[in-house]
Amino acid sequence: MDFLLLTLALSVQMLAGFGLNRLLARNQPSAALPELFALSFLLGATLVSLLLFLAGFFVSGEALRWFVTAVCLAVGWIGWRRQKLQIRLRDLWPPNLAERVLLGVNLAQIAAVGWLCSVRVLGWDGLLNYEVKARWAFLNGGVLPLPYFSDPTRDWSHQDYPLLLPLAESWIYLWLGRADQQLAKTVSWMFFVSAVCLLHAANRRFAVKGWQMLVSPLMVFTVPLMLIGDGSASTGYADFPMAVFYLATIIFVIEFWRNEDFAALRLAGLLAAAGCWLKQDGFILWFCVAILLCLKALVEARSWKADWRKWLQLATAVSLGLMVFVGWRWFIAFVGASVRTEMQPVELVTLVANAWLLPIIVKGVILELLNPRHWGVLWLLTFLSIGWMFWRRRASERVVMALAVVLPILAYASLHFFFHGSPLTRLLIQVSLVAVMIVGMAFQPLKKINSSRA
Amino acid sequence: MTIDEVKKRWLKVAAVGVLAACCCLFSACESLSKANQRLTDVAAKQPLARSAGGQYATTDTYLRSLEIPKPSERVLSAVAQLPENDAMMFVAPSRTSEIELTYRVIASLSWPREVGALHCRLGDANNLQPELLFQPRKEKQIRWLFFYRTSPPAASKSVTEIGPHLKLVPVEEAKEWTSYCSP
């Protein structure tokens, strides 16, 4: 029965995500199934958590659950009506040996992480920052009561953290009829499945074919911190989910750079905004994405000059994340939540005063990036791959890919000027999946690069 | 050989294969469980990283220090009898990461009751001042005290023993919280 209810909860959520994806990605009747799966989950989790939060001001309990279910079904149906999918069953079976091996590797990875999730506990933050909020929301009819946000004895649960992850877990509890810490890990596991699907989708979109497709999924299993440890896929922290959202965002940012596809721009904007609803650090990643999109606008300024619609679409996509961030900060201030911060004010004066930290920070970042116990050889290969791409690939892509990795790392490293306890290791997890994708793309043979350009 | 014959032959082969796989699985069940155990020892080496399984998979693991079976359910059943508006105070001898974790897990299980934290710093030669880490809102009355690894006042009449290291005691008279730190 639990399995049935869990499947139902995830299906309703993914149907909503599917509908949203179809509404946004117009003129793309055929999408790869793995990409569709991942986007359905990511967008579905975002929509369900947002609906639970907003509708929770008016209803709770069974009424809330059925209201959210009705909206999800409606969004799914409208999305399907707007643009039907063209999926042939025979496309599901991989056409050649390399892809069959890839499928086997992916299934083995998914099973291994599922097993890891089942034998390991939620990490400290996974339980005390996220799962407890899901549990409390469930016990209160799916809604976190307003007094919670100003309760001084729950200050340790970080009342100012956004609620995507807790409410996605709470959605499962609402369907199960009980809070269950073992089944809550299904959400973390689904984020890993989405990551695997997105790496597959990136291969497909960027014409990585044959045995080279195996590089990125295999790379995932060489990075210990992606699987075990604080922030990894098995701990219920928000860092790995953030990495999945960022990977999805960057895939669509690159697609937008390559083909000026405004459907990809809409998806990138929405996914970057979802990152702001997942964790506060999402705002930093959103800012990096905004820089990449604005750079594209600068490059295309001449050709877009007359077309105000393109500018409007770009502004809408970029501002979405800002709206989510400002909206959440306003809510936090409105309810009087305690904001725990040991950060010094982010000002030029502080930066100048702490400038002496620069060599220490640079050394710390380099040592962390090269730490094999955390990262294997991921970052070394990533920077080698970026160098290789600068030599071989066309300018637009290499700039986007390099900045997608370098900008967040610089931003996270520079946090140390203002906050000495910044958890760089965990923050790097958020960029690690994009790094894995870049390493995978660097292995693409030159003739395939040329054919993909054509 | 016609296509139907080929299909039938493949069906037979598949059926035999499935049967053989089932037999192998059944016979290997014990070895599989042993292998699973060995792998778990590698993947979740630390006792605090290993899931206890079930509804309270993580909180049960984190409350191992209480040294009782099903600690989450024991805490929940003790707290369930208390009015939801009553606030509580968690009194502990010092401030270590183990005590911090235990406090937070117990506070999370006590929802919606507010649970403050008082660390007595017993045995800390450098700082003998007790530390009131979290305090419930003024409008909430603290009517219950958790004593973790420290003894409740000798005069306490009704002591609920959740485990050898955790006791739940009603507040019988209003006095300074720090007085509960005196041995």
Structure description:
- The complex is a heterodimer of chains A (454) and B (183).
- Chain A has 454 residues and is mainly alpha-helical.
- Chain A is built from 22 helices and no strands.
- The longest helix of chain A has 28 residues.
- The relative contact order of chain A is 0.11.
- Chain B is built from 5 helices and 6 strands.
- The longest helix of chain B is centred in the N-terminal third of the chain and has 25 residues.
- Chain B has a 6-stranded mixed sheet with strand order 3-2-1-4-6-5, covered by helices on one side.
- The mean pLDDT of chain B is 83.
- Classes of the chains: A mainly alpha (454), B alpha/beta (183).
- At the A-B interface, helix 4 and helix 5 of A face helix 2, helix 3, helix 5 and strand 2 of B.
List the quaternary state of the chains: heterodimer
**Rounded to an integer, what's the Rg of chain A over CA atoms?**
21 Å
Q: For the report, how would you describe the main beta sheet of chain B?
A: 6 strands, mixed
**Major beta sheet of chain A, specifics?**
none
Overall pLDDT confidence of chain A? 88
Main interface pair? A-B, 31 and 34 residues
Low-pLDDT segments of chain B: none
- The percentage helix of chain A is over 70%
| End-to-end separation of chain A | 52 Å
Ends apart, CA distance between termini of chain B: 92 Å
Percentage of residues in strands of chain B: 15-25%
By DSSP, the count of extended strands of chain A is: 0
